[in-house]
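This part of the workshop introduces the protein records we will be handling. Getting from the letters to the tokens is the skill we practise here. An example says more than a description, so a record of this kind follows:
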Amino acid sequence: EFCMRHPEIRDVCDLSQILYYGWTWVWYGTAVMFLLNNTFVQGLHVLTGAKYLNTMTDGAACTIGFSAIVAMISWICSLPRTFNTLSILASFSALFTFVSVILAAIFAGIEDHPKGYNTGGPLGKLYGEPDVLSIMAKGTTFVSGMNAFLNISYTFIGQITLPSFIAEMKKPEDFRKALYAVTIAEIVLFCVVGGVIYGYTGTKYNTAPAFGSLGDEVYLKVSFSLMVPTMIFLGVLYASISARFIFFRIFEDTRHKGEHTLVGWTSWAGILGVTWIVAFIIAEVIPFFSDLLSLMSSLFDSFFGFIFWGTAYMRIRQADYGPGWISKRGIRGIAGFALNVFIILIGVYMLTAGTYATLQSIIDNYHAGIVGGSFSCKSNAL
């Protein structure tokens, strides 16, 4: 709704500047977060791709090499400069993801036991039947509980890209329909699949990503393999959004922006190359799938998923009803104001307490020796 009222918005950075009364520093601050968020997402997919290759080859090569291969493939796939090409890939990606997670849920239900059943595991805790709980287990720490919340939040928060998509549409008013359809579908799919897999693997045997909970190697590899298009596509999508953001501002009002020129294509490829190099470094420095999700959620989704939109609601209502809009609307105004203050406070809590919990979890995981360390050849297979 906010983007519909401001058609000049090209991305979330323009949106933030308008939200906060045209302050230039807000635009630059959001730009930094925007680019970092996108690059962290790319890093997540480099990490996931390395996990996949290690899983399929039983750790046949150095994890650093696998990460570099995934980053190189993703860079090549990022080279198309329009969303038209990416939209075709998006359709295939969505289809393969749907089949993959449905199969994972089915496999979790039909196999005898989850992976690691009664083996003790690396920390000596994997014994007994899966423990399915409706509330957190006794003794759950703040760090692990907060990380679980941040992981779930990340799954549902994609608002950072929405202004960019709306700006590209021939009929931006149609975006609302797509948003409703996607949101309903993802809530149903994620809840059903997550619930089913957790029901068969429980708290002790559940992993992130959930494919690692499957005890049958064939089941694990089949369902994980169907995620390959998404592993590549989502990283490519965020890389393209970052590159467009930088490229269009460098070459605004020049022929390089819309024509096929050597300078234009070299610059485009170079910008993408830098983002994938940084993504590779992120994947090697934070080689924990769950913690990387949590860090992105606390640092960026706090703003892009909560704080910005609570503020947007207030700006819209203020524009519609003028000063004193809260009291003018009666109980609806008070309830809407209170709800959106609460949404903003959730974002602030994620940014502060969430970031602390994530950093502590990364430290704890390094001390526990779950992975070999930064830039390690140790296999991170599921």
User: Anything to note?
Assistant: The two ends are 42 Å apart (CA to CA). DSSP finds 14 helices and no strands in the chain. The chain has a mean pLDDT of 89.
